[in-house]
Structures are given as structure tokens and as C-alpha cells.
Design goal:
This protein is mainly alpha-helical. It is 63% helix and 0% strand. Pfam families: Plasmodium_Vir.
């Protein structure tokens, strides 16, 4: 090494720049969620590095440049065409997805892309038409684009509960323990889903078929109750996932006060609240009974044992002391008063010495 060279420790550099652990922590949620079939499917479609920029000609015929966000829709069109034409390769990476689910998965992915661009654009119907044309050739199962949902202002809620429904099933099918730190993440995801569902039931936001996402809400409810026993057995004991509302006023019968990983809590069922009120009544009654018993016992001791005479002596002694004290105070006060009252009769000799100045 020459004097002008700077010494470098390659091993130190490797240790300094080995950020694999930190990157894994940064992507902790993404890594875990991609283990679930639906999220893995979304991730594959979101991957922009696995396709070449092509399909300009076909997209030019389906995306109008006269509508807002034309460039974004044109890019989405090219991605969509490439993904659909290579759909067999995507399916090969998603062997744990039932074939009849692919169409819904595709629609919710596409709808989410459109919502992020412009849900009011006229290009939506044009892209929907292109989707229908290509999917008949490259997607084995019959699949049409549900463009009516994409422009619906409730689409976000539809997708939210569709995702919850599919993901809790994916969590239930994981071949790993959920009673770990990583497993606890999945259980808290279930708590999040239940909380979202409870908020809607509590506010009566989606009461019947007139609600645009009622079907997705009911599908979540049905799937959750079907998997509840299994999911409870998989999650840690301090994560109680069963506090789901049956109605606006009532929780599931197995609901108890929740204490989970993050220290949050949820209210127990109204039945539990009534139990708390009953406990308060019992405590009050118990206190009254104890006081009554003590009073009764004291009465017996006072009348039929030496305890009564002892108490009587103590009381008499205190009364005598108090009477003597009062008498002394009275005498002192009156003596002072008598002296003061006759003081004017006493003779006082006052001598005055005048001083003369010469």
C-alpha cells in the first residue's frame, strides 16, 4: 500500500451496509400480507418491472386523449393488456387461488387502479370493453369487467370488505402458528376487520340491500362466523377476536373485554355491562349485611357480657371529667367578672410630679 492510499476494511463495509435486516423490518407488513393469496395476486399485478412497454396500437383505439387523465389511463391500459395476455404465468404463481376467484380478484385490482386515477372518467367504459375482449381469449374462466362498480362512490367500502373476507380465509389457511410476534400481526389484522364491521353495524350505515356494499358486508359476516372457532384457536389468548356485533345492540355471545398486543381495549357486550351492574348491587348488599351484623353483635356484647359494664364505666368517667372541667371554667369566668364589676369602688392614689424648667 502506498502512502497516498486510503485504507479500507472491506469486512467493515459489508457489516456497515448490510441493511437486509432493516429492510425486512421496513417491509414487515408487506412481507406478511404477501403470504396471503389475494395480496400476493395484487402484488404481482402491481409489479411494473415484468412487462415491456408495448400494446400502443390497441390502447390507442380504446383510450381517448380528449378525456381527463388520458396519459394515466393509457399507461394503465398497456399494463392491463400485458397482464391479461400473460395471465397463464400469473396463475402459475398463484396456485393457492381457486380458479373461480380470479375474475373478482382482477376486477377489484382494476377498480382500485381506476379509483386512484379518476373514477368519473369516460375512459372507464372504454377500458372495460377492452378488458372483456381480451379476457375471453387469455383468461380461461369467463370474466367480464364490472365497470358499474368502479364509478360507484361506495367502491372503496366494497373492496375493503371483499379484501377482509378473502384475507381472513387466507390467514386461517396459513401453515404456521399465529401465537408469535409475526402471527400476532395477522390476529390484529382480524381485529381491525372486526372493528370496521362493528362501526358500520353500530351506526346502521348499511342495513339492507339498498346499501351498495351490503353483499360484501354480508359475505364478510358469513365467512367470519364460519372461521371464528378456528381463528380463535390459532390466535394468542390475549387477542380476543370474537367481539363482533350480532345486531346494533348485541355482541356475539363469546365476546369479553379485549386486551390485545397494543394494549387497546374494546367494550364488552351489554350482557357483560349488566353483569358489572349486578356485581355493584351485590357489593352494596354485602356491606349493609356486614354493618347490620356488627351492630347486632355489639348489642349482644353490651347486654349480656362484661363488655357492657366496661363501656358504661368508660362513658361515666368521661362525663365526670367533663363536668368538673365545665365547673372550673365557670368559676374562673365568674371570678373575673366579679372583680371587674367592683373595680370602680376601689380608691386609686395618683401622684403628679411637675417638672420646672429654669
Amino acid at each position: 500500500m502506498s502512502p497516498g492510499d486510503i485504507y479500507t476494511d472491506d469486512s467493515a463495509d459489508e457489516e456497515l451496509y448490510d441493511n437486509s435486516d432493516y429492510e425486512e423490518e421496513d417491509n414487515f407488513e408487506d412481507v406478511l400480507m404477501k403470504k396471503l393469496p389475494l395480496n400476493n395476486f395484487y402484488a404481482i399485478l402491481d409489479n411494473n418491472t415484468d412487462y415491456v412497454i408495448a400494446e400502443n396500437n390497441i390502447c390507442n383505439g380504446y383510450v381517448s386523449t380528449s378525456y381527463p387523465n388520458a396519459n394515466e389511463f393509457h399507461e394503465l391500459c398497456r399494463r392491463l393488456v400485458y397482464k391479461l395476455k400473460n395471465f397463464s404465468g400469473i396463475k402459475a404463481q398463484c396456485t393457492n387461488i381457486q380458479k373461480e376467484k380470479f375474475c373478482d380478484y382482477l376486477n377489484y385490482w382494476l377498480g382500485n387502479q381506476i379509483i386512484n386515477i379518476n373514477p368519473k372518467s369516460n375512459n372507464i367504459k372504454l377500458i372495460g370493453n377492452l378488458f372483456d375482449v381480451i379476457s375471453t381469449t387469455f383468461v380461461e374462466e369467463k370474466c367480464t369487467c364490472k365497470t358499474d362498480k368502479f364509478s360507484n362512490h361506495s367502491f372503496t367500502k366494497m373492496k375493503e370488505f371483499f379484501d377482509y373476507t378473502e384475507n381472513i380465509e387466507g390467514i386461517n389457511n396459513l401453515n404456521e402458528s399465529l401465537k408469535t410476534l409475526r402471527g400476532g400481526y395477522y390476529c390484529n389484522y382480524i381485529l381491525k376487520a372486526v372493528k370496521s364491521y362493528n362501526e358500520i353495524i353500530e351506526k346502521d350505515s348499511c342495513p339492507d340491500n339498498s346499501c351498495e356494499y351490503y353483499a360484501e358486508l354480508e359475505n364478510f359476516r358469513t365467512k367470519f362466523f364460519h372461521l371464528l372457532t378456528s381463528l380463535k384457536s390459532k390466535c394468542p389468548n390475549d387477542i380476543n377476536i370474537s367481539c363482533i356485533r350480532i345486531t346494533k345492540e348485541k355482541y356475539h355471545e363469546s365476546c369479553t373485554t379485549l386486551k390485545h398486543t397494543y394494549g387497546d381495549s374494546q367494550n364488552a357486550s351489554p350482557n357483560d355491562q349488566h353483569t358489572g351492574d349486578s356485581n355493584s348491587v351485590v357489593k352494596i348488599v354485602t356491606s349493609v349485611c356486614v354493618l347490620s351484623g356488627l351492630f347486632f353483635l355489639s348489642s349482644i356484647l353490651y347486654k349480656f357480657t362484661t363488655f357492657g359494664s366496661w363501656v358504661h364505666q368508660r362513658i361515666s368517667r368521661k362525663e365526670k371529667i367533663w363536668d368538673n372541667t365545665e365547673e372550673e371554667i365557670y368559676q374562673l369566668e365568674n371570678t373575673s367578672f366579679i372583680d371587674n364589676a367592683h373595680s370602680y369602688k376601689k380608691r386609686h392614689n395618683i401622684v403628679y410630679h411637675a417638672s420646672v424648667n429654669y
